[in-house]
Design brief:
Elements: H1 3-84
Length: 85
């Protein structure tokens, strides 16, 4: 091989290394962007889970109150029936 060929080969290697370095920087930037998105999504999911838990508790309390009202109404009807006898 001549000196010119060796120099061209070295230049190609350097260019390839620079291109690889730029690709690595691009990938790192994409990973950072995705990490930020995942962090945001995780925070949103946590907040959503807390809201769901609050709603489940509220529904449970409403059901319990409805059951108490229903039982009171049933007892009231039974008591009214006894009074009419």
């Amino acid at each position: 091989l001549g000196t010119g060929e060796v120099m061209r080969a070295v230049e190609q290697m350097v260019a390839g290394t620079q291109a690889s370095g730029e690709m690595v920087r691009d990938v790192v930037a994409q990973v950072d962007t995705q990490r930020a998105g995942l962090s945001h999504l995780s925070a949103f999911t946590t907040g959503l889970n807390e809201r769901i838990a609050g709603l489940e508790k509220a529904v449970s309390e409403i059901r319990a109150a409805t059951d108490r009202v229903s039982e009171a109404g049933r007892l009231n009807v039974a008591h009214s029936s006894k009074l009419r006898e």
